[in-house]
Amino acid sequence: MSHEAEAVSSRGGGISAGIKTPRPKSNWLKHEMAVPKPWAVNVGRFALFIIMLLLWEIGARSGLINSFFWSQPVEIARTWWIGVQTGAVWQDTLYTFRSTVIGFVLGTLGGTLLGLSFWWSKYYARISEPFIIMFEAMPKLALAPIIVLVFGIGIGSKIAMGFAITVVITTLTTYNGVRSVDKDLVRMVYSLGASRMQVFRKVIVPTAIPAMISALRINIGLALTGAIVGEYIGSERGLGRMIFYAGQTYEISLIWANIFNLSILSMLLYVLIGKLESLLLKGFMHQK
Amino acid sequence: MMNAYKMELENVSKTYLGTDGNPVNALGPIHMQIPNHRFISIVGPSGCGKSTLFNIISGLVETSDGAIYVGGNRVDGLTGITGYMLQKDLLLPWRTILDNVILGLEIEGIPKKEAKAKALPLLYKYGLKGFEHHYPAQLSGGMRQRAALLRTIMYDREIILLDEPFGALDAQTRAMMQEWLLDLWDDFQKTILFVTHDMEEAIYLSDEVYIMTSRPGTIKRHLMIDLPRPRKPQIITSPQFIELKEEALRTLSEETMRAYQQESAG
Hints:
Chain A has 288 residues and is mostly helical. Chain A has helices at residues 2-11, 14-20, 27-32, 38-62, 67-70, 73-86, 88-117, 122-137, 144-151, 155-179, 183-191, 196-233, 239-248, 252-285. In chain A, helix 12 (196-233) packs antiparallel against helix 14 (252-285). Chain B has a six-stranded mixed beta sheet, with helices on both faces. In chain B, strands 2-1-4-5 form a four-stranded antiparallel beta sheet.
């Protein structure tokens, strides 16, 4: 009732009055069209984070949460700070960062080249198809023990893990991109007297680029998982190695401190990939 | 050997193996003799094989029988002899209009810079000024067809195949594009083969109209259009035009009916 009364009075106010007087809003305008302020969102996120930490700390101190398994934020912060001072945090993070990025780059490039290569021969593509799909269906993490045996406990096995886990999915994504090419477009370019190489360079590769770009984001997460699992199996350094080691010696704070580092690292990687992605989209697809 | 004709199709046909293992005749045999610098339209019921015919002429599909000669040389099975444009504009979406228009020159190995210098005046002259650095997605259908047609013209072949180039455009844009095409044809002195569904469009644009039979498509009728040029759009209301159109439509509707009956029977 009061809403209706308000609506009537504001309509009577004319144009200039209409801007200042509070006007009624439909539910559509109020809820669906409303955009939250960016600063308010950030404040809210930060507050939620602090509240979670506080609840955790209070829970641990009051005995509601078993701090033997869950540790507590203050303890974790202390452990983390020791790591910062001894430099272990940087060394381990950098180690995992390096193996992830190298595995990601090799796997993505290798998969892209492999996926593109299938365009050149239908015979070769048809023969390879079941093997690729078989390898894709298999959980690559199961290979970790063999990979560590073959490539040793150094960075090589972590790179190999990242490569193994990203190369097949990239191959399939790229090949799907290649196959989605507009046949008429290919026909048109051939009708202009183009060679196969020209069709490949001018039509096939650009067509596959969006698929390749979309693979980046998935691949970085996969490569990180590969590197961490490789470190679990056997490693001299790395965040995964620290988490595994801390787990075996029941140093729960150390596990959490390294998980914190790991989440910072993965966030950093996602931001970097996001930048790379928009750069590529702008460069190749002319999108903002 | 001097040839009276620009292009000759001799006994061109297409047969393929059907699902039951027996050969199915999809097109032809077709004979055509095409004089230089003529505007020639091909009209026929849907599915009669007009597009197959164009694919054969452009070298993208092999003819099952017969041969094609251009200037006395046998060219069937060869690409790069004709410029070919389809109803879809087929512009590469990741290239600007200018880069799309020079695609044919680029494939021939002409340096990009040189190709662009050649293309820019054409873009200016033929209504794409200000759009040369736009991407296809930013242009209207009519503009995109213009760019596609200019790409075909830039590819500078003496024979140009246009497969329903205006089929997807609205009536006003289509009328504008017809005028524009006639201008281009006048300026560049090409021999044009034009496939359309629209008899009025065929007669208005052409010197000769071929009417095809239903599948397997052969030439049913070869009409000479001796309306004076340059033609004004109003010509379509002249008695001579209407007479031609009536005759052509009568021939076509016989074939359309036959195609329909074939389909219903099969």
